[in-house]
Design brief:
CATH class of the largest domain: Alpha Beta
Subcellular location: Cell envelope
GO cellular component, one term: cell envelope
Protein name: Extracellular solute-binding protein
Low-confidence stretches: 1-24
Pfam family, one: SBP_bac_8
Family: Belongs to the bacterial solute-binding protein 1 family.
Number of domains: 2
Distance between the termini: 75 Å
Length: about 475
Amino acid sequence: MKRKLKVACLVLSMFILLTGCSTASKSVLDPKNPVSITLWHYYVGDNKIALETAVDQFNKGEGSEKGVVVTAVAKGSILELEKAVTDSAKGIINAEPMPDMFSTYPDKGLEIDQLGKLCDLNDYFSKDEQKLYITAFLNDGKYDGDRLLSIPIVKSTELLYVNATAWNEFAAATGVNEKNLTTWEGVYAAARAYYQWTDAQTPDTAWDGKSLMGIDSVANYIIIGNKQLGVEVIDGKNEKAVLNHADLRKLFDIYYGGMSLGYLNAVGKFRSDDIKASDLIAYVGSSSGAAYFPTWIEKDNTQSPIEFTALAYPCFAGGTPTAIVQGAGMSVTKSTPEKQEGAALFLKWFTAEEQNIPFAMTTGYLPVETGAYGNADYNASLKSLSSGDQAEKNVAAVYDIALNQIMDSNTYASTPFNGSYNVRSILETSLTTMAESGRQSAVALKEQGMTEDEIVTALDMNARFDEWLSSIRSQLDTLGISYSEE
């Protein structure tokens, strides 16, 4: 009798346990009482249209069936969006209420999470569901080891874009080839040779050569360059900046030296603008920017068509080939169970291959699920782009090399910490400011008729490097950000 009683109690306990688990995992959504979800984003142009189209499709289909209505609100640029979200999270007077879901980069996501405003999406995305995403993309939204605070929507990497028409002419005349562009040291040597080659075409005028290339994101150049050489300049694990003098000096000599002497340049707002204006013939930029690479340039007051080539991101000699992974994800705000589940439902639907492929491939972004790259829709989109106009062909040409770089190389995105955004900004602004000062000094020295060696000596690279380090230290100290030196 006692045994039967124990068995009965065990069965009852298991029934209660299973019932409790079932209740916990049961959807709280109700199609008869749909929940409203507000989504803030920064997309513009074709991406904005693509997002709004997807939201409308969701609302009429999956959302209608499950009881979720999403409203997408464009908040301007990423900086304007981040300010709006931050003001909301901090309860600033006259700030709008927090959105239920919003686009965010890791640094800003961490800041909002520290205010206690983000939902851990592990509660809504199972391990099997998380395995659908490319690991490097998903990890960009993980904090404190395993907390999932954002879901990747689209991603990009950085590539080296080349005006092949101008490059081929230069290569044929000098013997320089694309292998020179695989390392940063080779890039510098090629840029110097290009400047000298173009300078020699006007022998009566000294120092009027052309710049070979530019860098869209100097911060990425510093962060990835350090990582290639084995150092995390933004050390999220230990919440500090790491200033490795030897590695930083390699980056400094190429960028500061190249910008000062005119081998590298940055003229317009974007390096693609510099290509169109014939100020550059190559630049490093986001794979999502292929659609903006010019199909023609202004030359002698006429438009001249140009060919396009995309190459892998350069690596420092002796370093490990490493490519950046970047792109905002979407985070869900802590609110009600209904709103959180509704937001998660939309994110699952939106990042599924059927929806994510057309959205990503609008302008050259990378879909986020591994299966997307064997999908018939993906191949059809590539085929359509390949047979389109020149700008679409440029986008199509980027996908294979960008995907190979993501899948076959080491990928990296720095782990954020409180203050990491400021570290990134300090590194970039301090170096670009130094380089502009060096350029101005070099221009004056060129006018005095100095040779390259004499100019480099007069610039005093050792002193300028020490000045750069001092500037970084001073700004980090002012903001109370920890750092170490090696």
